[in-house]
Design brief:
Layout (H helix, E strand, L loop, with lengths): L3 E3 L4 E7 L16 E5 L2 E6 L3 E5 L5 H14 L2 E3 L10 E5 L9 E5 L2 E6 L2 E9 L20 E4 L4 H16 L5 E11 L6 H11 L4 E5 L2 E5 L2 E6 L2 E12 L4 H12 L2 H18 L3 E5 L5 E4 L3 E12 L5 H8 L7 E2 L1 H11 L10 E6 L4 E5 L3 E4 L6 E10 L5 H20 L1
Parallel strand pairs: 2-6
Antiparallel strand pairs: 1-5, 2-10, 3-4, 3-13, 4-9, 5-8, 7-8, 7-21, 9-10, 11-12, 12-20, 12-24, 13-14, 14-23, 15-16, 15-22, 16-19, 17-19, 18-19, 21-22, 23-24
């Protein structure tokens, strides 16, 4: 099957420096937002100059990269800044399951960015297309009269699925799997992505706040960043809810750090990233022991990863080697994915798949779509939230349910304000 691309005549791209725009989500003129924000820096975008829909298959990252290279090769680019994220950029979101057709790359018409004290505006469109002003066409409206309901499985049914997974693991079929839950929300009016983005970026500045084609969230997990030949990643696996006091936080963090169950779960993820990236890198640095990462709602075991690529590879090439990691699938990958399909009883769609951006140089930043919600395209007053937990032989269904509820809280707070 061929990739499907929707684009007008050959594109002209012009990037110009602009004064500091301030709060990036506040400058989005329309609810249909694209975004990638970290500590107030990043890029936001709107409009659609081109869309590439990516069919299912294990080679979907490679095919998407090839098609995007062809598109950018025919583009007239005027980019005097030549920074990561300037010039033409495609925002992307890939389905978790290689059997799903939900993956997409979108090249917007306008991109507003800020990095290391430099701000810019990129205009993308047919020749002679004039730039839109940076003005709010539709002021954002917070969601109201929210009604919450169970997703595919009720809490007791999901706990039973976890118990089944633990039994399979103990009988030696696999070492780890990851089971996700969904939660539905209904608002009185269409949900404005900009409100969610602003709340997430404010409350979770250390996370990567994203929006791509109705998928919105703030992920703590950097799957891969590519800048020239340098790559960075952040492995997260092993989680506990935050405590009520600093002392409680410290106790929980120490318990997490010394937990055999959580250290085993983290080791699966870190070892897989090492195995995936070593063949691509001239050098790779992964710490022997994880560190503690504290977020407003949870505490994670984290391992930062740094490396140098051995030759020219785009960020999508590296994604192809990494996805899916044990942090969102399990290990071995095949049996873990089969068990997810059997026990979750739902289609994850783009939840737990790669989400991020890539520019014409092959640079980009991609995270795992966690702590997120997907807006319903047929009914914009509805959305579906997701949360997942790593399951190993020592997992307790009640504790996993509490962890999932803690992970839901980021998006629930974004809706409720």
């Amino acid at each position: 099957m061929k990739l499907a691309a929707h684009t007008p005549d050959p594109l002209t791209v012009r990037t110009v420096p602009v004064p500091d725009p301030g709060d990036l989500p506040a400058r989005l003129p329309h609810p249909q937002a694209l975004a990638w924000i970290h500590h107030g820096q990043g890029i936001v975008a709107w409009g659609e100059a081109a869309r590439i829909t990516i069919p299912a298959g294990p080679d979907r990252f490679t095919r998407a990269d090839h098609h995007l290279r062809e598109l950018f090769a025919e583009t007239d680019i005027d980019d005097p800044l030549a920074l990561p994220g300037t010039g033409p950029v495609a925002f992307g979101s890939f389905a978790f399951d290689p059997a799903s057709d939900d993956s997409v790359l979108i090249v917007p018409r306008r991109i507003l960015g800020r990095r290391d004290g430099q701000a810019w505006l990129t205009t993308i469109g047919p020749r002679h297309h004039t730039a839109d002003p940076l003005a709010l066409a539709h002021p954002p409206t917070p969601p109201t009269h929210l009604q919450w309901s169970d997703g595919t499985l009720t809490a007791p049914a999901w706990q039973q699925a976890v118990a089944h997974a633990v039994e399979r693991i103990r009988h030696g079929r696999l070492g780890k799997t990851v089971l996700a839950r969904d939660l539905n929300v209904q608002a009185a009016e269409p949900i404005d992505a900009r409100v969610l983005l602003d709340r997430l970026a404010t409350r979770y500045p250390g996370c990567f706040t994203f929006a791509v084609d109705g998928l919105i969230g703030a992920t703590p997990e950097l799957l891969i960043r590519r800048t020239d030949d340098h790559i960075d990643s952040l492995v997260l696996a092993g989680t506990t809810p935050r405590g009520a006091t600093p002392t409680d936080d410290h106790t929980r963090a120490q318990r997490l750090y010394h937990s055999p169950k959580d250290r085993e779960e983290h080791a699966y993820a870190a070892d897989m990233v090492r195995d995936a990236l070593t063949p691509l890198c001239a050098d790779l640095r992964i710490p022997d022991h994880p560190e503690i990462l504290t977020l407003p709602n949870v505490i994670h075991l984290a391992s930062p990863v740094h490396g140098t690529l051995d030759r020219e590879r785009s960020v999508l090439d590296v994604l192809a080697a990494l996805h899916p990691t044990p942090a969102v699938c399990g290990t071995p990958t095949g049996p873990a994915l089969d068990l997810i399909r059997e026990l979750e009883a739902m289609d994850r769609g783009r939840y737990a798949g790669p989400v991020g951006w890539i520019d014409a140089r092959g640079d980009g930043e991609w995270g795992i779509a966690l702590r997120c919600a997907e807006l319903d395209k047929a009914d914009p007053t509805r959305a579906r939230l997701f949360a997942g937990c790593g399951i190993v032989a020592d997992s307790d269904p009640a504790a996993e349910l509490a962890e999932a509820q803690a992970k839901f809280r980021a998006m629930q707070d974004a809706f409720q304000g």
